[in-house]
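Teaching assistant's notes for section 4

Start the section by putting this record on the projector. Ask students to predict, before seeing the second block, whether Peptide deformylase will look compact or extended. Collect guesses on the board.
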Amino acid sequence: MVLPIIGYGDPVLRKKCVDVAQDDPNLKQIVADMYETMYNAYGVGLAAPQVGLGIRIFVVDASPFADDDELSKEEQEQLSNFKKTFINPTILKEEGEEWGFNEGCLSIPEVREDVYRHERITIEYYDEDFNKHTDVFDGLAARVIQHEYDHIEGILFTDRISSLKKRLIQKKLQNIMEGKTRPDYKMKFVAKKGR
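Reveal the predicted structure now:
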């Protein structure tokens, strides 16, 4: 089921999420709904708070990046099949140079800014069958994971930009909170709650 994506300004996007119980009877459905919602909005990642759930889950499918001619063949190949579910993840290590990339967010439509993140991460997580993994990711895969991981920590990509850039996008953020933005996917805006 396609769920509405929670817009900037909603308190759920600022909460540190709690772990998911292994025996949660809704887990498979939550994951399926998150993928369907992400694909419906043409996203490459989606975290549970973005659909109103304060739990430590995010899904990633970075395959749209595989068509980027500026990437090495190796990275294109890595991204072409990069679809993963991360449950109760913990980033163990961030390494390498921080590098900038123009990021956006389904919860913050029509806003894009350069964000600097580490080039390599080591992350421990469970998949949707609750098998435990510890993996190392780099490049765009690491970036997408870090962006979604921030969501379950209550951090938005706009928190990682300069105060000047924050002032420059303030009106756009206000428009999102007031529901004056019209993305081509279903959203729930903080100002329209209860109406």
